[in-house]
Design goal:
137 residues; homodimer; mainly alpha; DNA-binding; Multidrug-efflux Transporter Regulator, Chain: A, Domain 2; two-stranded antiparallel sheet; 6 helices; 2 domains
Chain lengths: 137, 137
DNA sequence: ATATATTGCTCTAGAGACTAGAGCATGATG
DNA sequence: CATCATGCTCTAGTCTCTAGAGCAATATAT
């Protein structure tokens, strides 16, 4: 049996975050010690690692909740889980594309700025005047 | 003189967001009509466009506040503005790199999943077992 | 001139995913 | 047995908005 601190150290999830996940219904309420402290089993730890892993992959709490619920019905078809992962992958790709446009724009702004005073600073000028931008954003 | 709705339409910033920016001190309190409605000048519109543009580029409210303050002292050196933009560019690059690792991981997970039931769904298995991952994340 | 429709006002609360702090209880170590 | 880290609950704060309630002002149509 692990204390919440042990669990935190082993999974890399902070103590308040563990309690938050419990509150959100991602992990079930654990057993308690005589003094009302949480005591976790190995199963609890696996569940938390699952959540942590999903969060690291950028899944939302809701998506993880859905995946947990799916994983508890091993006989059902896995199309649901597949769909969640694919949709998320698509989101990630969109975000990458957005950020690349941004990177490009910022590079241009920064490299153009060789003024010495704010008056002719390209950073400020570019922000003031959208017309100086290359792409749309 | 523009109403808040006009301003919203012309800058693409939603009405409640404009009021929010006012509350945050990014735009100064505008004049009011007899009936206490906000009335905006062209200068206000330019300021709001500046903010909008900065937000589109992913700058935080704080960064924008700093840039506004800089832009009001045209005689000062522009190193500050340059630094803000460069730091942000660096952040953007880091985020792109992170998301690319993620994309890769998700691609792998999704492409491996040809099981038909949750029991052998690679999505679920990958989440349960970090050992199945290629990189660290 | 009046009826209606749209837009505006303030204030409060919610979203998402935590994080921080207060004030007190428990448990492990010397 | 004393001390101190760790645990508990509860509330509030982070950030950038967004939504809704309930009411006031303005614009348009008749």
């Amino acid at each position: 049996m692990l204390t919440i601190g042990d669990l935190s150290r082993r999974t890399g999830v902070k103590v308040p975050t563990i309690r938050y996940y419990e509150q959100m219904g991602l992990i079930s309420e654990p057993e308690r010690s005589e003094g009302n402290q949480r005591r976790y089993s190995k199963t609890d730890m696996e569940r938390l690692a699952f959540i942590r892993h999903g969060r690291d992959l950028g899944l939302t709490i809701d998506a993880i909740r859905e995946l947990i619920s799916l994983s508890q019905h091993p006989d059902r078809p896995c199309a649901g889980a597949d769909r969640i992962a694919k949709e998320h992958l698509e989101d990630v790709r969109i975000k990458i594309a957005q950020l690349k446009r941004l990177e490009h724009e910022l590079e241009r702004i920064v490299s153009h700025c060789d003024g010495h005073s704010i008056e002719d600073c390209y950073v400020i000028r570019a922000l003031s005047d959208h017309g100086l931008c290359e792409g749309e954003h």
